[in-house]
Amino acid sequence: IARELGFASWMALRAxxxxxxxxxxAMEQSGPPLDAGMPTLHIRCGTDIKHELEAAGFxxxxxxxxxxxxxxxxxxxxxxxxxxxRYHADTELTGADFAxxxxxxxxxxxxxxxxxxxxxxxxxxxxxxSHDQLxxxxxxxxxxxxxPPHVLELISVNHFPGSRRFIGLGQLPPEAMRLFWPRxx
Length: 185
Known about the structure:
Distance between the termini: 30 Å
Radius of gyration: 18 Å
Low-confidence stretches: none
Shape: globular
Strand order of the largest sheet: 2-1-3-4
Structural class: alpha/beta
Number of strands: 4
Helix content: 40-55%
Oligomer: single chain
């Protein structure tokens, strides 16, 4: 059973269950937020873990870098955000109109552009698929050409023990977010 769930041994499975149980219990206790100590921005390629981060006890702000770069035009043109918004509106990928998409993408881009000044710590939560990896490249390219935040951290996940088929962070419970926090790089 342990090997089928991705563990090397029965003891590793027990340790994982014990850790998750402890994190679930810690969530019920009142205490300081996990990301306390410095103003923190959590970046994710969508909103799928926003609620789980809040439920897990994180208090930092959240920025969804949701634009799916594996599809549509990717260009250095000055109007690249408008091109992306037009593509999404025309393909009905999001179900939103051009003006809404343009406003959302522009606001998200502006928040990313000012994140190093506004936050002492930025934590990027990503996994192994192309959507996440291209969003990660976008964030890292941004910080490479501007001033990075004082603390830039990554939580990169391609597997979660106990998941028969790991699809992404969005399928995991809040206590899993707490388990990843000490493993950030």
